């Protein structure tokens, strides 16, 4: 079903009512007001485009699950992507192609116009469940919707807010779960065969280092240092090609993949039948 024919569950209602219906209010407000033109996204979407260029067909159909404000579409088009794109999300205010309950993916196939060649889940899984078993079940449902030839591209946080260290003083409510690279891979491999792993974002991970201190708060010296580094210093244009180069060199070496901002997994649906743990 195409976007214009589905029930968006809230468009045309008051702003207050739509805010009350947000699944992740903090995330919605942050993304709607954020500048998506930043160092991290520059590197991430260049690497995603590189993966799309590896595919054996020139115009793949891309399904962006958890598309948010559709930064993927904007970046990929600018980088020369000419295939079909369709974004779905459970947040109505992002105005995706279809509003779909990501917690109940069985309904996805009814809301997309075609079977995808590629499924993107870029910084999505960490926002959904605290329990890895529930993530595994969800991934199994997504895997069942596509053929064996479909490619999945996942990006997941590592040094972002120092997620991989699971520090008790760094509570970020929009991240329901914090896992190491090995733990994320274990979740994915319940239903997918990982064919490639790459670290992405080395310079863009530097601003998070002040958060290692237990004295860190958003409004003290450490917090202000973080804000300056992330929003100003590391947004110097010359850092973009440098960080992309680092991601395409260090990011391909296993020992460095755990100290990048994100880790990217490229995977194919497993043909083995695996039950949820």
How is the secondary structure organized here?
Blueprint: H1 15-20, H2 25-32, H3 39-54, E1 61-65, H4 71-78, E2 84-89, E3 98-99, E4 118-122, H5 132-143, E5 151-157, H6 181-188, E6 192-200, H7 221-231, H8 239-249, E7 262-269
Parallel strand pairs: 1-2, 1-4, 2-3, 4-5
Antiparallel strand pairs: 5-7, 6-7
Helix pairs in contact: 3-4, 3-8
Give descriptors for this structure.
277 residues; alpha/beta; 7-stranded mixed beta sheet; 8 helices; 7 strands
Q: What report would you give on this structure?
A:
This protein has 277 residues and is of the alpha/beta class. It has one domain (3-269): Vaccinia Virus protein VP39 (Rossmann fold, 3-Layer(aba) Sandwich). It has helices spanning 15-20, 25-32, 39-54, 71-78, 132-143, 181-188, 221-231, 239-249; strands spanning 61-65, 84-89, 98-99, 118-122, 151-157, 192-200, 262-269. It has a seven-stranded mixed beta sheet with strand order 3-2-1-4-5-7-6, with helices on both faces. The longest helix is centred in the N-terminal third of the chain and has 16 residues, at 39-54. It starts with 14 loop residues before the first helix and ends in an 8-residue tail after the last strand. Mean pLDDT is 88; it is low at 1-13.
